[in-house]
Write a structure and sequence with these properties.
This protein is mainly β. The protein is 4% helix and 40% strand.
């Protein structure tokens, strides 16, 4: 009869009833979901801690995440699905799947991601190659997710779901740390754009015409600077400076078409770096924000000058990105834990935003966030990586855009280092560099 562990090998599959019949009586089937975990602290090699499925034929969902290709989850029926839980939110840009007898059959399926297990975003729809039973990689634009759900399409037995193993693939390689160091000795993660804009916090920061701290800053004995203000917006201009009269339109379609708001050298593809020491705060849940791709953030011009992507590192160690389509219209990504509390210690934060193609005709924006927990300027840890491909946020029509969720692909004349509810902050080694997109 063949090996009962792998029923397809000996023709045993035809004897196994559909998984839906094994789940529950028909009137209860729609409510039943099978959940099996690896244990409270366990995490399989593929990165998952638990698995859940629409049903099974005795080969349970946990077998697809146990790191063993000789076990598998199986379910035969109408659009069976398997959901695997990473245990916490993280950035995902590829999933590896080993299909049982993947070298003999193709499987049509969809991949969807979720942060809460309720609302899902489809990131892949297609079929396996039909050429391998080993892990096969399916890639997509990076997104933050906790749950990965695979839905197998079709009702025929040939389309039944049999997955030997599931894993989250490692993120794409980190930027090259050997590119060099900036004038402060801080590692640069991306190469400069040839002839591009650059700004570094000057020795005489109070005399720098391109730096507008919008508050009184004083020099500390160690060479760093101190800001004592509850609401901080420290702006950095390009070499062209800022002149609202040079902004001839705020129409989102026009800005996306030409690539800038005020001038061709606006801050667009940038690596922003800054080190801060939080000495006192009124709200431990507030945050530091490094942001760009806009100008002044106020209510003039319907707030349309205030577009930006904001890399937020919260005082309690959480991190997330915000998309400000106009001032004030925000969309936030889910939080991830980037580090421990920032209170009383130096921490470095890098925000990288750069345009990337998401199709043959459309640009998206890749958003990356890095933390330097030791403040040595060298050891950077990536804590966020996602792509705004036009499916996030959404009311650009307020400023003339025809697509509500369009990415902010244009540059702006001001890059800003921002924080609120921190009465005493030391800062140093601030920089904004235009990088190769």
């Amino acid at each position: 009869m063949g090996n009962p562990t792998h029923p397809d090998r000996g023709g045993f599959a035809a004897m196994a009833p559909p998984c839906a019949r094994r789940r529950a009586p028909p009137r209860l089937a729609r409510w039943l979901v099978l959940t099996l975990t690896l244990g409270a602290q366990a995490r399989a090699a593929g990165g998952f801690v638990a698995a859940k499925a629409s049903g099974d034929d005795g080969h349970r969902p946990v077998s697809a995440i146990d790191g063993d290709l000789d076990t598998y989850w199986a379910c035969q029926g109408s659009r069976p699905w398997l959901r695997a839980d990473l245990g916490d939110a993280r950035t995902v840009d590829a999933v590896d799947i080993a299909w049982l007898h993947g070298d003999a059959h193709t499987r049509r399926f969809t991949l969807a991601l979720s942060t809460n297990g309720i609302t899902y975003t489809r990131v892949f729809s297609g079929a396996s190659s039909g050429t391998t039973s080993a892990m096969e990689r399916y890639t997509f634009a990076p997104r933050v997710a906790r749950y990965v759900r695979i839905t197998v399409l079709g009702d025929a037995p040939a389309e039944s779901a049999r997955i030997s193993e599931l894993a989250v693939a490692p993120l794409a390689p980190e930027p090259d740390p050997e590119l060099g160091k900036d004038p402060f000795g801080v590692t640069m993660l991306y190469p400069d754009k040839v002839g591009g804009e650059q700004w570094f916090l000057a020795e005489n920061a109070t005399g720098d015409g391109r730096f507008d701290p919008q508050g009184i800053i004083t020099r500390n004995a160690d060479g760093s600077w101190k800001m004592r203000k509850q609401q901080v917006r420290m702006g950095v201009f390009t070499s062209t400076g800022y002149d609202a009269q040079l902004i001839t339109t705020y129409d989102r379609d026009v800005l996306a078409g030409r690539g800038y708001m005020q001038a061709p050298n606006d801050w667009k593809n940038v690596e922003m770096t800054g080190f801060v020491k939080l000495n006192s705060t009124l709200d431990p849940a507030d945050n530091f924000d490094w942001y760009a791709r806009g100008g002044k953030h106020n209510d003039l011009h319907l707030g349309c000058e205030g577009s930006s992507y904001k890399a937020g590192l919260h005082f309690d160690g959480r991190a997330r990105w915000q998309k400000e389509t106009w001032h004030v219209s925000y969309e936030q990504t889910p939080f991830v834990m980037a580090t421990t509390s920032l209170l009383g210690r130096w921490v470095g934060l890098k925000a990288v935003m750069r345009n990337v193609p998401v199709s043959t005709t459309q640009l998206g924006v890749r958003l990356e966030m890095y933390v330097n927990e030791t403040a040595d300027g060298i050891t950077w840890k990536k804590v966020y990586d996602l792509v705004d491909d036009g499916g996030w946020g959404g009311d650009a029509q307020h400023c003339g855009g025809t697509t509500a969720a369009m990415p902010i692909t244009w540059g702006g004349p001001i890059a800003t280092f921002r924080w609120d509810n921190a009465l005493d902050v030391d800062f140093k080694w601030l920089s904004v560099r235009e990088i190769q997109p």
